[in-house]
Amino acid sequence: MSPDIHLHRTHALGLPRAREVAESWAEQARQTFGMACRWGEGEHADTLEFTRQGVSGQLVVSATHFELGAQLGFLLRAFAPKIEAEVRKNLDALLGTPAAPAAPGPAGTRGSR
What we know:
By secondary structure, the chain is α+β, with helices and mostly antiparallel strands.
């Protein structure tokens, strides 16, 4: 089954600094969303597994990219676009990259009114 939320971000941080960024993201996820997070360190990449009621996923952290995938429960799936936008905003802020433009809304509108 494909994830309800999928993000891929490239970077040039190297693995030690990428781990620091991922740890900051995990702390935000714990505090903001009540996630339980568990680390698995590898030689070339680490995996951060995160869970809470209605959400499970992982963040793969390598020397060159972050790959996040999350499955949402039935009730949260309706909010997938908003949840993904918030996760994207938080990860991009930690990486110091500009946020991606907002996706088109209904009838081709963009942004807030």
